[in-house]
Specification:
Length: 368
């Protein structure tokens, strides 16, 4: 019997987080079989003549675009989805990859995953969201991972990396004796918990002056310069490669993961792998990989998105007061917390959260 090859369909026409994860999946799958990369905009215009599985990553966006572009010729939305399902039956298996950013997804989301045979999500938290919402497809959990170097590379020095902004951050930390709290704000300020970060930092700054808040963004953050200078807020923005990201964590002392929702939040895993403790609440997907000493109680149950057609459920804000208390404990005992975190990463996380482990799990699902 011929070995099953894989057509992997993902966003190539623009670079998003799904693209980066898909590329890691493809890199690992090529250890087991032939993988052919396909752009989501051309789904499903490929017709296999040998045993093939199809991976669609992400599923909802790719199917929605197909329905809008090609399926409009069908008499109804449901007919368009069924038309795509019929086209995909030529594959031996169709595996969809998706996320849940809140504790429920919409009926529209469930209709858009109809063409797949199985759905893969990165956390039990996401799996419960789909099942709670009425998903009838098998839902498998395969977490995100990291390259093993994230765990094993010694702390980097700015001179080894060459990023001027990070070199300046290093000098700032040394010259002013600051302990750095880093917050990754890629998009969706409310979902990432930016309002709670602001409340937290204002409280913390009233109680100690040896801290600075580093906000990592894609583009420049709209901050008043005098306000940022008075409160010791530093904005690092732009694309960072893997070693530059490692260095930013290595320069940090604590990572703030205040998200209200999210299917995995890989920044938390990256931080822990580098031996940098995180502060997060206990009611999110990240609680599946974070040690208990990094977690504080949740506060309010809130709608994750005010208006989203797919992620229609709720998540939680962090208890800001408890987060401040934990920040004091960490900042006053940094060596102890960093040592515990690195030990946890090397003894627990590396056994599950590497791309090698992830690839083996995906191949098992695809080839089964």
């Amino acid at each position: 019997m011929a070995q099953r090859s894989v057509v992997y369909c993902y966003p190539q026409w623009h670079l998003v987080s799904f693209s980066l994860v898909a590329k890691k999946h493809i890199e690992q799958l090529r250890k087991y079989t032939n993988v052919y990369e396909w752009d989501e905009l051309t789904l499903p215009e490929i017709y296999p003549v040998t045993p093939f599985a199809l991976c669609i990553h992400p599923t909802i966006g790719a199917v929605w675009r197909w329905v809008q572009q090609v399926g409009r010729l069908e008499p109804s939305f449901d007919a368009a989805v069924e038309s795509l399902s019929a086209r995909l039956r030529k594959y031996e298996k169709v595996v969809g990859f998706e996320v849940a950013d809140s504790d429920a997804v919409s009926e529209l989301a469930l209709k858009l995953i109809e063409p797949v045979d199985e759905l893969v999500v990165p956390s039990e938290w996401s799996r419960r969201s789909y099942l709670r919402s009425g998903c009838k497809k098998p839902v498998r959990v395969v977490p995100h991972g990291l390259d093993r170097e994230w765990y094993t590379t010694p702390p980097l020095q700015p001179s080894e990396v060459g990023n001027q902004a990070l070199q300046m951050l290093y000098r700032y930390k040394l010259d002013y004796g600051k302990k750095l709290l880093t917050f990754w704000l890629w998009h969706s300020e409310a979902r990432k918990g930016y309002p709670e970060v602001q409340q937290f930092y204002e409280r913390l700054r009233k109680e100690r002056d040896d801290v600075a808040l580093v906000i990592k963004t894609q583009g420049p953050l709209n901050l008043d310069i005098q306000f940022a200078s008075r409160l010791n807020i530093v904005n690092v923005w732009g694309w960072l490669d893997e070693r530059e990201k490692m260095l930013l964590y290595d320069l940090s002392d604590v990572t703030l993961l205040f998200s209200r929702g999210g299917a995995f939040e890989i920044n938390g895993l990256e931080s822990l792998a580098r031996g940098i403790p995180i502060i997060a609440h206990r009611k999110g997907s990240w609680a599946e990989y974070a040690p208990e000493w990094c977690l504080v109680p949740e506060a309010l149950r809130v709608k994750v998105f005010a208006d989203n057609a797919i992620h229609v459920g709720y998540g939680y804000t962090i208890d800001v007061e408890k987060a401040v208390d934990l920040a004091h404990a960490m900042l006053d005992n940094l060596d102890e917390y960093k040592a515990r975190t690195k030990e946890y990463a090397l003894n627990v996380l590396v056994e599950r959260y590497t791309w090698e482990k992830v690839g083996a799990q995906i191949w098992d699902i695809v080839s089964r």
